Amino acid sequence: MSTSFDPTESAQGSELEQLLMQAVSDPAQRPAFYRALMDATVLVLTDSEAPEGEVVLEAGSPLSLQVWEKQDGARVLPFFSSPAALQRAVEGEQPFMALPVRVLFEMTEGAELFLNPKNEYGKEFTPQEVSQLLQDGGTAKPLERVLEAGTEFLIGQPEHYPAAMVDALTTLFSQRKPVRRAFLALIHDKTSDERPNLLVGLEVDGATEQEIEALIQEAGTVASEALAEDEPVDFCLVNEKERGISHYLIQHTQAFYQRRWGSWLRNIIPSSGIA
């Protein structure tokens, strides 16, 4: 095989494989997987020996990559997170080269790609997914909507509790310190929505506007991945001092997530040294 793969990139590949394994069963881990993927360097199989030395490739550079055929006849371009993942998928020596994921995605725009085929954990990427990853890293930018004063809406609790979504969001919020509490409701603005939407209210502290926007972006991706149907989910910030939606969520519902203070106390309270 052609080898010029940095050992640090091999470790990076192992981390990516671990995140992929977690993301398969836990939607809360998928934003972390997508972030790691877009920063990763991966291996691609070439149709001939890669040139010696350092090679700089950009979108549009000529490069002949191997394309595999799936059982259904569809053609996919395989790529691998590490030399070990590649070796598990091929027999004998195969020429390959390392490429940043962003360069690979830009060079192969419109193609079906497959990460770690013939491994225990792998993922196929459609052209639409690749385009979205290049555009926003896999987490769609939320649409902001302002409820004008006097807007009439119905708010209550969902008849069918979205347990999978709540579990996934709970896992995500436990990893994000600014989230103090999270609440769930069903809201219906008849002037703009045909049917009610799930609403997640977030009480946060110690976060900038950019951090809050990134948090809601992640939470929206996790929520949509966890829901069985393509069901819209709204997010809003809540505050104990505000009326309206904040008052309903905080005073009339129970938070499905509440930050554990113990993790903070361990950081700020030193050991007393008492025997």
TrEMBL record:
Pfam families: SseB, SseB_C
Ranges in a coiled coil: none
InterPro entries in the cross-refs: SseB_C, SseB_N
All residue ranges annotated as the SseB protein C-terminal domain in the record: 148-259
SseB protein N-terminal domain mapped to chain residues: 16-131
Lineage top rank: taxon: Bacteria
Official protein name in the record: Endopeptidase IV
Organism: Chimaeribacter coloradensis
